[in-house]
Structure formats: structure tokens, C-alpha cells
Amino acid sequence: MAKWTTADIPDQTGRVAVITGANTGLGYETAAALAARGAHVVLAVRNLDKGKDAADLISKRSPGTNVVLQELDLTSLDSIRAAAAQLRADHDRIDLLINNAGVMYPPKSTTKDGFELQFGTNHLGHFALTGLLLDRLLPVAGSRVVTVSSIGHRIRADIHFEDLQWERRYNRVQAYGQAKLANLLFTYELQRRLVSHGTTIATAAHPGGSNTELMRHLPGWAAAAYPVVAPLFQDAAMGALPTLRAASDPQALGGQYYGPDGFAQTRGYPKVVGSSRKSHDVQRQRRLWTVSEELTGVVYPIG
Fold first, then answer.
1. Per the residue annotation, which of 28, 105, 176, 257 is the catalytic one?
2. At a CB cut-off of 8 Å and minimum separation 6, what does 274 contact?
3. pLDDT tens digit at each of 303 positions of the chain
4. Which domain of life, per UniProt (predicted)?
5. Is 166 in a helix, a strand, or coil?
6. DSSP state, residue 259
7. Domain limits at 142?
8. Cβ–Cβ < 8 Å for 201, 191
């Protein structure tokens, strides 16, 4: 079968795509590809200066593209609410919400609201943002919520409901695994709740092994090994393909998970892939949803 590439992205003219963490790496490549196909792209970023640089680069790559900035700090519920309010004021409709931003393996730290940084940013921040914007997606035929997970959702990963914020102990690898598993549990539960609405779907993707800024917090043992394994990884443009396919392939179905087709899903072209048994545990999905609404104060407008 032919390999799926950016050439397969359908015309996106008239579509509004909001992409978190779009100033660098996977998010930037996702934004650039959608803008090149005619989408009105909103770069939802924490650093507006870096966001402006990214928007300028996208415009140079594809003159005439429609790219704007929206300040968004996923470590702050106040910032998320402010960004959502501005996006709702600026856009009557949103076709694509791509939950891309993330942090991996940082030293123990918390968000402005006291959540463990990886769980708070990668999951709770996107959970809140999606809930606050969902009514802009629900009326739009073909709209999608795409959430970026990771191979890491399989690595020493579980949802530690007894200590979600890692206050008793902290293991950066396990905390990342929890956050990325949460991304998939969220996607599958969201899709189940969207089915009765018949318009919006929820999909997920992972980039395999990609050389991006996400690697800057690797623990000592991994940092030492990284130069050896780095040549096996792919660049950000290839790493963004699963997200782009999840966002734009007309054949994509709600609840599908896209990743690279190569060895151990570390590199290659995007295809539908499987996720861990835990990610499909309905009890975990529903419990995490309830806890996420309680922690963020964001209650979704769907049952």
C-alpha cells in the first residue's frame, strides 16, 4: 500500500485548526502542513515571541497562509480559561483541536495549580481546554479532537489514583507514562460520549521516536544513551505525520490511534496502531474522567 504523507492531506480551506505547543517540533510541523493546505491555523503557545517566529517561518514556507497566535499556558487553569474565552470570541467554529503540547521527564515540579507537571500539562490542561471549547466543535460536521500520546503510555504506566500528583514519591518515567496513558483513556472516553452527537470524533496519535525539544529532560542514564539511539529516531516532520493523519484522513474513525508503521512503532509512515490493555479499561477511563472534572472544575457539555 502507498505510504501516507502530507500530500494526502485534503484541502483544508475554510477549516479552523487550534494546535497547542505549535511553536516548535511536532506542533510546528503539524501547523505548517495544515496551513499549507489552506487551514486557518491558531498557534496556541505559552511563549508569544517563539510563536511569532514560528508563524513567520510558516508564512515563508507557504506564502499566503493564515496563521495567528493565541497565548496559552497549559500549566495554569486561569490561562486555559482565558485562552478558551478568547478563542470562543474569535471563532464561531473550530474544526480541529489538536492537543499536542507536552513535557517529558522533568525534575519533580508542579503546575501553577499544584498538579504534578506532566499529568497537569499533558492531561489535565488539555482536558480542561477541550471541555471549554467543545461546543465550538460539536456543531461542525467532520470536526475532530486529536490528542498526542506516546509509546511511553506502555512503559511502567498506570493511573495512580491513590497519588495522582506524586506527592508520596516521584519517578519521572512512571509519571510520564501515567500522563500519556491518561491521554488515551481521555480519547477513548471522549469518543464514547461523542457518539450520540454524530459530528465530532476523538482520535489519538503518537510520533514514535522523534528528535524534538521534548528530549531535553532525559534522566542521566537515558541522556548518556541518547546519542547512540538518536540516529534511529526520525525528524519532527515525520513524527508529525500520525497526528496529521488522525486530524485529516477522511477515512479516520473515532477512537482510532495512529503511529509509525516501522519497527516497534519508532519510525515510519502513519497507520492505525494498537494501544495497551490498560488504555482500553472502561473503568479507568470513567474514573479518570470524573477525577479530571473535579480537579479542573471543567464539566463537559456532553453526557
1. 176
2. 257
3. 689 999 999 999 999 999 999 999 999 999 999 999 999 999 999 999 999 999 999 999 999 999 999 999 999 999 999 999 999 999 999 999 999 999 999 999 999 999 999 999 999 999 999 999 999 999 999 999 999 999 999 999 999 999 999 999 999 999 999 999 999 999 999 999 999 988 999 999 999 986 555 444 455 545 444 454 555 679 999 999 999 999 999 999 999 999 999 988 899 999 999 999 999 999 999 999 999 999 999 999 997
4. Bacteria
5. coil
6. E
7. 11-296
8. yes
Q: Is residue 129 part of a domain?
A: yes
CA separation (Å) from 72 to 48, 148, 269? 9, 17, 30
Phi-psi group of 198: left, alpha or beta (phi > 0 → left; psi -120 to 50 → alpha; rest → beta):
left
User: In DSSP terms, which residues pair with 258 in a beta bridge?
Assistant: 205, 272
For residue 18, being part of any structural domain is answered with yes
Q: Is the dihedral of CA 152, 156, 161, 166 positive or negative?
A: negative
Q: How crowded is the C-beta side of 167, counted as CA atoms within 13 Å?
A: 7
Q: Judge whether 1 lies within some domain.
A: no
Beta strands across the sheet bearing 257-260: 66-71, 40-45, 16-20, 96-99, 144-148, 201-205, 257-260, 270-272
Residue partners of 123: CB distance under 8 A and separation at least 6 = 179, 182, 183, 186, 292
Long-range contacts of 56-59 (CB under 8 A, 24+ apart): 57/28, 57/32, 58/28, 58/31, 58/32
The strand pairing partners of 71, in sequence order, are 45
Look up 176 and say whether it is catalytic. yes
What CATH number does residue 237 fall under? Answer: 3.40.50.720
**The total number of structural domains that make up the chain:** 1
